[in-house]
Amino acid sequence: MSNTELRERMVATCRQMNATGINQGTAGNLSARCGDGFLITPSSLPYDDMCPDDLVEMDFEGTYAGRVPSSEWRFHRDILQSRTDIDVVLHCHSVYATTLACHHRNIPAFHYMVGIAGGTTIRCSDYATFGTQELSDVALRALEDRLACLLGQHGQISLGRSLDQALWLATEIETLSRLYVQALPLGEPPILSDEEMTRVIDQMQRMSYGNGPEPEGSNDVARPRN
Ligand code: 13P
After folding, report:
1. Is 196 a catalytic residue?
2. Residues 72, 134, 144, 195: which is the catalytic one?
3. How far is the CA of 225 from the centre of ligand 1 (A)?
4. I need a labelling partner for 136 at 20 to 30 A (CA). Which of 30, 48, 93, 218 fits?
5. 217 lies in a domain?
6. DSSP state of 154
7. What domain count does the chain have?
8. pLDDT tens for the chain, residues 1 to 226
9. What's the CATH number where 91 sits?
10. For ligand 1, what atom is nearest to the CA of residue 92?
11. Beta carbons within 10 angstroms of residue 218's beta carbon
12. CB 37 less than 6 A from any atom of ligand 1
């Protein structure tokens, strides 16, 4: 994808973050790997006012060209640098995920879809001040072997190979958070066993569950008609 197309698609993804209700105001930020570095949203610019040229080019040393980058450039850089399995980092303050993060609650395997983040829980990180290296460090720890985490008293981070995947995952994390918040007043829901979650995650990986068209032959339930 060309630099121009990536910029256009990043702006479209930012606007979708607001349109789907997972973000509001100038909260949230988005980055995508590009060349030897990455593109990242500028700080404090409402997405409706943002145009492709406003996206900021950064390298992994933390130098930038253009507008002032998101205050969270450190965790975007550190995640993109250490996680070669993903190319997009999406951060937002979606309401239900942030509600759980305000109580520092991990999301346990109360529903099989928790497995989409890659493990038996979706972790919540410790609290650290926004825009700091400390926040980046705790986020990286919470994301170990995972594609998403909650940020203590702050919000959520979702990762993806593509902008669509990261947006899809962030929306799923918000839906799971909402279900968990709604289930909790009825009592702590039963938790699926580690053995079952291993089966779920294995099945999800085999079927590329939720990640777009399945590779041929990966679905063992149905066969396409000739
Ligand atoms: P920026 O506008 O600097 O990206 O900050 C928004 C935010 O969500 C901080 O965590």
Report:
1. no
2. 72
3. 48
4. 48
5. no
6. T
7. 1
8. 899 999 999 999 999 999 999 999 889 999 999 999 999 999 999 999 999 999 999 999 999 989 999 999 999 999 999 999 999 999 999 999 999 999 999 999 999 999 999 999 999 999 999 999 999 999 999 999 999 999 999 999 999 999 999 999 999 999 999 999 999 999 999 999 999 999 999 999 888 777 654 445 455 556 678 7
9. 3.40.225.10
10. 8
11. 12
12. no
